[in-house]
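User: Sequence in, structure out. Go.
Assistant: Echoing your sequence, followed by the structure tokens.
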Amino acid sequence: MHLVKSDTLIERGLRAAELNIFEQNKIWARYANEKPDVAASLMQTIRAIHSRVPEDRSLSALSIGSGNEPQFRILQAAFERGLWLYDIDGAALATLQERQSRQRLENVHLVQGDFNQDFQNPTSARHSLETILDGQRQDLITLHHSLYYSNAEDWPRLIKSLYDAVLAPDGAMHMVMMSARETAPFTTTWLYNRFARKFFGSSTDQDLLGLRHELSFDAALKNCEIVSEMRKVQFWVDDFDLFMSVIWMILLYPHRHDYTLEQRIEITEFIIEHFWLPKRPLVQTQDYVTLHKLGPAHSRIVFNGSY
């Protein structure tokens, strides 16, 4: 009976790999406590921005790689001058468009594009400021799990282009990613590296804290306060198909790693044994890095700040 059940679960686990990343991310957002965790960190950043600007000044924000869950309620309420939700995924933007129309949100603007092209260097960033953002510098720029879709070696140029050409004086950039430095068993980083190393001889090099360290010594970011923190979140859903769909998202199948059928079976068996049967939640350690652009009235350089 146990073997029959396991065989059935394996078949379901393999089918779960067929969901697109948009649906996988919706499941993660619904059943993980990651969105409230991001919101808590984001609110610290928004409070810091408000403390630096006049009370009668309305603010604007740009969410890059917004997906369909871009901390919508917080951002739409806090940035009345304009909220630009930018994503390459048309399906995610379609969901947002329905909400925008239904709730008559005139300050919300939806933009489909590739940030690796539109903001890749100062020239393209300045052009995008004029053509996409109506020439409005943004008080907040968020990159929530969007840097996964950019090569790590390109991050410094991308961030500095946004900082110089798009971010307003006294504004902030708020970034979050899965920690590349986590080694604890049964975390998302550990799970990804386990199978990426085994089948492809690779591991994640997308280290947000490494980016923070590099930017801290960059003279171009003068009068910039850089702060960071690490937080843990959990994901669990009592539905094997939904649970496995998020596993495939974490393992980047098939967008980066096209595991063979045999490899997918091995992965599914591992998840059944080590997560599903013992009902072990999937833990994710997240790195947060925030750049505060301090204008003349608040000018100071802090390279080792943390919340």
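User: And one key feature?
Assistant: The beta strands are 60-64, 82-87, 108-112, 138-144, 167-178, 224-235, 282-293, 302-306.
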